Amino acid sequence: MTVQFANYRLGFYVAVFLLSGTVLGLAAHFAAVFLPGLHHDFTIFALIVSSLTILAFLFTLQWAQPRIEVPVLFVLGVLWLAMGAWTTDVVGNRQCDAIDGATREGNISARQYCYETKVIQAFSWFLFSLFVIAFTILLNLISQAQRLGRYNIWREPIQELGWFGEWPGYYNTHQPQHYQGGIPYGMPMQMAPGQPGQTIIVQPGMNGAPATVQQIPMSTV
């Protein structure tokens, strides 16, 4: 696992958990005071989107591959876009502090309802922005890993991805590590026949170092 990618991904997950949890709490409050009479469609949708986000992230936090996380980020991003647009349609450009405190919205004051809806609106748009950024970064990191030779990275654990400038699959490294036998990951190698039953592997040197020449049995190639 690369440390930078793991830390940034964890930070993204924590932010999404906190923001989604806040929206879920406000939606649950709306459900308690409004359902089933008022704002039922909006309240139920807010409950579904925030709950689905938390459940999906609890699953992908430990078990995820790029081919799973990419569509998850896309779908959740679309849902939060819809949530933000719907909330904007509900609250509009209303100035909450200008609302008469005596005006009621169900069992709560209209001013309190306005403030809480504004919070849902702001958090929904912020979450949508986070998902767009995460989706874009993830696609770029997958493309980088494929350029570095990890052609099956879509099916590998997502922790194998490296951050920008890092090699995938290695712990906090900016250059490829060496496998046993001195063959660096992702570097091209050339093979030539050697003694009977053996072959010679010529591995280009890194950072100007001389090439590495190895003679190994044919059965291991």
Automatic annotation (TrEMBL):
The keyword Transmembrane belongs to this UniProt entry's keyword annotation: yes
Transmembrane intervals: 12-36, 42-61, 68-86, 122-142
Record key words, sorted: Membrane, Transmembrane, Transmembrane helix
Protein name: MARVEL domain-containing protein
Lineage: Eukaryota, Fungi, Dikarya, Basidiomycota, Agaricomycotina
